[in-house]
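Case study B.
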Amino acid sequence: MPELRRDPIIGRWVIIATERGKRPVDFSSPEPTKERGFCPFCAGNEDKTPAEVLAYRPAETAPNSEGWRIRVVPNKFPALMVEGDLGRVGEGMYDMMSGIGAHEVIIETPDHEASWSTMSQANLEEVLWAFKERIEDLKQDPRFKYILTFKNHGDAAGASLEHPHTQMIALPIIPKRVAEEMEGSRAHFANKERCIFCDIIHQEQMSKSRIITENKNFIAFTPFASRFPFETWVLPKMHISHYEDSEKVGFDYLASLLRDTMRRLDTVLSDPPYNLIIHTSPVTAFNLEYYHWHIEIIPKLTKVAGFEWGTGFYINPTPPEEAAEYLREAND
Amino acid sequence: MPELRRDPIIGRWVIIATERGKRPVDFSSPEPTKERGFCPFCAGNEDKTPAEVLAYRPAETAPNSEGWRIRVVPNKFPALMVEGDLGRVGEGMYDMMSGIGAHEVIIETPDHEASWSTMSQANLEEVLWAFKERIEDLKQDPRFKYILTFKNHGDAAGASLEHPHTQMIALPIIPKRVAEEMEGSRAHFANKERCIFCDIIHQEQMSKSRIITENKNFIAFTPFASRFPFETWVLPKMHISHYEDSEKVGFDYLASLLRDTMRRLDTVLSDPPYNLIIHTSPVTAFNLEYYHWHIEIIPKLTKVAGFEWGTGFYINPTPPEEAAEYLREAND
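Model:
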């Protein structure tokens, strides 16, 4: 059973894999686990993954057989285990709990070569619906406090499989970065009775210099204090605290904006590896006035981010205004 | 002039390079700046760096000529500028200040091939003294609140030059991670009237499972909630809040422990790239009861740390107890 351990100084929780821990040799041999040429997420290989928990497929096809458009399966090598109780224990001065959680994979399309820039609007829209469906199912489990949805695209961004997929981890704790955002936006609301993200959207629309693209319901821009070159945020213009409550602004609008944004990043940065993270409210909360869900996209560019994750101190060599200009002008 | 910009939501300051910003093409071409075969830090090339601000060299040698053992020079491509005033301004809802700061490089030895595991005890001891001397000089400048000392070793850890060196950045703000540590340890002290780092040392000495090596005055262990495989912390056993006030525990003891620790990491992980960061108190404080300076070493191992720095949420595939066991048993 993996463990969740709490840093006693700053309170950050970390998942520690306690079984089958990676040994030194696992880090030195290049690509030890990737089986080249074989992809368990491709159509025809449905029996190579755990059984699907959700699939978009014609009614006449059987579960775990071909014919699907989207499949969601438990991760074969989960970071957390879904079965068990949340044992909370101390070890001397330290705090830990058993590593309970869900770890799922959304296989976004049978097409091994697709990406968010090249897949159809209809395909990406269904992917976004699948996220919502899985979040709504996982939030029924009272052990889970937060559902983290993230996508690693490309080798350098940590993707261990090429086939287009997104991961979802349901957690019994709230990740530190999310907790900080909740706290910061709560303080802003307490001061001003306004959502800080709504204020940011307003500010960006006034100054225009960091906007990449927008449509009726969504906006993409490079944030004022971007940590990374070409860091990009996508927000619904209307105030919504939870991703899964976004029908009213339309997953069609979101899919359209994301495809547009991704095509611009691909054009300007030549299909960069990236991490994409949905920042949404904890599932234990409900219609928060002060928090506004959004997506953060971080292209993983060569030689950027050295000691930064060790210090919380970032040096960004590309001003967000310049990055936005490149992305605005990219025609696809 | 670079800018320091504050994230309005979580309060993290970021350095944004506003001049000569990196363009998209700078990220796609591999190794655009590295001149192979030529090293500006090697003996004989003293005129290829800015003039030295400190050097350990025989009295009969002239500044910026050969014969030195250690040289400290301003960074030729500084992230911050040392000349100017700390203009603090708002831009709409955002906060920023001019990017004032010092950015220096400690060239640790004339030997291009050396590392902290292979250089002599006397050499590393002088390096540690040079850190202290530069910190004491930089803290005279009232514009600076924090002095960050860090080392990127190896390409994958972001080192742009191979020659053994450490960087020092004097900042007009306190980095977020440091502020969090100060806050967490202040809260612990308020509760218990004890330094949390002293408590951690005591705990580790009781349980023993995470200790790598120790000597009379210093200890190295893998922290309980390690974010990364083989993450290693080094602390003085005696309570000292500021790195530069450590004569009483001996830079000889520190050099000896660091060489031992680095040799173990090199043996077990085959000379891994790593980031090493000195966590010390802000220069505006003085003999703090609640904070305890220490060094964090983060080996940068393949395929680890994907989306982690975007979320503050870490999955560590190697339990620190196993990592410590490998490192304890490594004989050099």
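Helices of chain A lie at 24-28, 121-138, 176-192, 196-207, 251-269, 308-311, 320-329. The remaining cases will be described in the next quarterly update.
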